[in-house]
Design brief:
DNA-binding transcription factor activity, Multidrug-efflux Transporter Regulator, Chain: A, Domain 2, 11 strands, alpha+beta, 3-stranded antiparallel beta sheet
Length: 274
């Protein structure tokens, strides 16, 4: 028995070693997935150190959402070749999961930054800001100026981004040609729907130029945003600037942080030239 104690682990010891409950080991034994190497006549159960890696692999595969039934099927017929195939498959799954988690992480960071920007923004007042070059994935907007057409255009844009491998889009914006500046109402002549990306790694990007931008933050949603468009344009013209080709409209505080469409905060910006 001393030799047994030196070379084998009881169920409790093995469970503690592998950071699981004893009930997990009992269940795995019941379904024929993973059993003690030795079961004594008195019912005592012993696991060997060689079984530790097998158990860790079972835990890893379970963590990767592989059903216990499939894990058992693999173990019952395992070969070096099937192990290599299985590990290659799981490597691909892990790499895809890492990408997905990176997108989620970036979404959280970016959404936090945008929301904090909204909290500290001075609204209904024009400021002039030096901005770096930015890269926008765009889809053209050619629909009617109504909610249904806008919803269809946004859906089309999301699908296009998904086709490019973008799945966690922190926010979308839109462009309006300065020649089509809104003058009243909620429905504007949008030119594009866009999503900002971090570099020139996607096709047909719209390049938002670096330089001086006139910026205004508008409260109370889109119904009265035309007032801030007018304030912005009047101010930059008064200061001797010429507006660029597009207004850029970004929703800073949206349904995730504000209750109701009329409480959204919108950031409107336009490139300025002397």
């Amino acid at each position: 028995m001393n030799l047994m104690k030196q070379n084998y682990f009881t169920t409790g010891e093995f469970a503690k070693l592998c950071h699981v409950k004893k009930q997990t080991l009992f269940h795995y034994d019941d379904i024929g997935l993973f059993s003690p190497e030795i079961i004594k006549e008195n019912g005592y159960r012993y696991y060997s150190y060689q079984q530790i890696e097998v158990f860790e692999i079972i835990s890893m595969l379970k963590e990767l959402d592989m059903p216990l039934k499939e894990i058992k099927q693999y173990l019952d017929t395992r070969t070096p070749e099937s192990l290599i195939q299985l590990l290659h498959e799981k490597q691909n799954e892990v790499e895809n999961k890492i990408k997905e988690l990176e997108w989620i992480k970036n979404y959280i960071i970016t959404k936090t930054d945008i929301t904090e920007e909204g909290l500290h923004a001075a609204t209904e007042r024009v400021s002039y800001v030096e901005m770096p070059e930015e890269y926008l994935i765009t889809t053209d907007y050619s629909g009617k100026p109504d909610d249904k057409s806008m919803a269809a255009a946004i859906t089309k844009h999301y699908n296009y981004c998904h086709d490019l491998g973008l799945y966690m889009i922190h926010s979308i914006g839109s462009t309006i040609r300065t020649s089509d500046m809104p003058t009243s109402g909620i429905y504007y002549s949008y030119a594009h729907i866009y999503t900002k990306v971090s570099g020139r790694i996607y096709p047909d990007l719209h390049i938002k130029p670096a330089g001086t931008f006139a910026v205004i933050y508008h409260r109370n949603g889109f119904n009265t945003a035309f007032e801030s468009y007018k304030t912005l344009l009047d101010d930059l013209l008064q200061k001797g600037y010429t507006p660029g080709e597009y207004f850029y409209e970004d929703t800073i505080l949206d349904e995730l942080s504000m209750c109701g469409y009329d409480n959204y905060m919108i950031k409107i910006s336009v490139h300025c030239k002397k």
